Every structure is written in C-alpha cells, then in structure tokens.
Fold each of these.
Amino acid sequence: MVDSTILVEKKYWMLSDEELEIIKGTPQWVMVLNHLYKYGSITGNEAKEYYGISRLPARIHEIVHVHKIPINIKVEPITQKNRFGKYTTFAKYSLEE
C-alpha cells in the first residue's frame, strides 16, 4: 500500500519526483483506505488537501460496496464555524472498533 505519511507530512505540491512516482498509479480508494488504517479517520477536506480527492463519499462507497473490504466505517456529522463565522456540517469517516 501507499505510505500516506508522505502526503500528510507534506503538501502535495511539495513532493519530490520520487514521492510523486510512488503515488502516481495508486487508486484513490486505496489512498483513502490506507489513511483510515493509519490515522483512524478522514474528512473531505483532508482527502482533498492530502490526496486531491474531491468525492470522498464515492471512494468510501467503493471501498465498502465495490471492493467489499470487510471493515466498518462510521460516518459522524461534525458541525463547526467556517471562515465566515457561519456554522457548517460535514462528514468525518472513521473506522469502527
């Protein structure tokens, strides 16, 4: 599997050519699954920032229903203020224990 530590510790535009080559052909669902195993949870903003994935719910669906990976993923609604001071709700996906 891809070592997502590379992407979490650095911004994607700061990756070296060697690091980019590692992740180049990796499917997005594999990157999400690896992140879940390594860090326990992921949000849409993290998926976009670290991996360039803009449709995280589709990747979660792919993991569970298409590839039938035997894991339980919990969806938790998180409400926070955005940069404009308005409350917004987004999903946090995490591995159930």
Note: The beta strands are 41-43, 73-81, 87-95.
Amino acid sequence: MYARAARRRTNLVGGNSHTSELAMKEWLATHDGCQIRVTNFWYGPAHLYKLYIDGDWRDTNVDKFVSPNSPALSVRVTPAHHGPFLVEVYVKARVTVKAKICVDGKQIGGDVF
C-alpha cells in the first residue's frame, strides 16, 4: 500500500499573497524496515527535492526542471540487517508535483504515473 502525500503551506511574510507562501509536499514508504521519506519544498519558481533514509538526509535536487523518465533522487542503502538496495525517486511536476519511490526498479510508494 502506498503512503499518501501530505501537503502543508506556511505563510512566511503575512497577508494573502500567493508568492509569500512556502509550500511542502511529502511522500513516505518503508522497505526492509527502513523509512524512506521524500520532501518537496517550493517558493515561487524555486523547487527543492530531498531524500531521507531513516531520518538521515541522503540526496538533494534543486533542478528547476526534472524529467519523469530519469531519477531526480537516488541513493544506495546498506542496512545492517539486510542486503543493499537502490532507492530512486522519479518526479513529475506539471500543475501539481508527483513523486514515485522505487526500490531496485520496483515502485513501493508515492504517486503512480
């Protein structure tokens, strides 16, 4: 079962201006006891994607444009209790931001696209 994305908005400046808001979206998944967390922050045209494994920040992408056909984030994980695995995150940003979390080429969480 895929974890649904959460969305939060924080007003940085005050008032109702759309450009004064920092927005965040988050996706969660678990593989072999490891928690995988992907966050996307945006403020106006700026985007920041981050990948966390068990709370540790492991990869970042600040590219303005990302391709949904190649991983925007990736990391090889070697947990103490299991063999190594590759986490890849694909991002599709059109009107809304979608993220697909894959482990060793198989989708385990996020959005379907």
Note: Confidence is low (pLDDT under 50) at residues 9-20.
Amino acid sequence: MTHSSVFHTVLEVPLVIAIPNSFKLGGRDWTVEIHDVINNEPDLYGDCDGFECIIRLKKSSMDVMQHTFYHEFVHAMCFTLGWEKFNEDEAKVDTLSGVLLQFLKSRRGKVQ
C-alpha cells in the first residue's frame, strides 16, 4: 500500500464546550457562579461584574448557559480592554459572542 492510498478518517464528534469555574483575563482572576435567580430578576440569564470579576449565570439548559456565558465573557473582555462604548452595545456583544461560540463548537483537527 502506497502512502497516497492511505485514508485518514476524522471522527466527527460533537464538541462539548465546558463553562469554566474560573479563568484569567487581563491578569485578573475571574470566577463563574451558577444561580437559580440573578439579582432577584427571574428573566435575567447572566450578569458580568467587571469590578468584582464575576460572571453569574442562571441555571438553565446547557445551550442557553453556553450562549449566556460567552455573551458575558465578551462583556468581561470589553471591560478589561476599556471598550465602554462596545460594552454598552448589547447587539454587538451578542453577535460577537455567537460567532465565538460557533467557532469553538465547529473547530476540527489541528495544524501539524
């Protein structure tokens, strides 16, 4: 069998994108908390406290929590970088977080 006739199979396994308990961003330690209700607001799914370096998520389905985590993570990045105007634009924050999550879920293989 020649090298050119060898087939490499890549298994398509759904990626599980874990939500971290903590992470570093801009040299600061951030924590992630899961709550039944955030700030006594039952319709609030997430919150980013840039001063305390805490992302709070409402306990819900994993898809909703992942999307909410990356939405709040983008807020954390904007806070860290001092991008106040971008941070206040919920549509842009949500779009960027969606693109980031799409990338993380769809990446395959590795550069060799």
Note: Helices lie at 62-81, 84-87, 90-106.
